Hints:
The protein has two domains: about 1-30; about 35-129, Immunoglobulin-like (Sandwich), CATH 2.60.40. The protein is α+β, with helices and mostly antiparallel strands. Helices cover about 20% and strands about 45% of the residues.
Amino acid sequence: xxxxxxxxxxxxxxxxxxxxxxxxxxxxxxxxxxHIVEFTTGTLDSWVTVIxxxxxxxxxxxxSTINSDFDYTLNIVSVEIPVNAASxxxxxxxxDSSEAQMRFYGAVDDTTVYQETINQQSYQYxxxx
Length: 129
């Protein structure tokens, strides 16, 4: 009886551990999502030039260049990085060296990957997935 009880406890503890492991694996799977890189500024005069050029390299090795337009109403310029991107590099330029907030985050879960305050006219950023 004592041996049966010990075997039963051992089986239950192994079952409990294996189900915990299964749940943990599900939680650790990365979310497949596109990402957004955005730069926000204070109010700018319409004569101030803001340029965001992004070169995206996809998993198959093809590259594309995206030139994003600054929204003078919302004071923001952004680019969406697709799910199948392997890496990207961007060049941000603001004519009068105004302060800008850069944020790189997941489009689905809104989790910030990187953010920085920029106080320079020209800024470059690279990232590989």
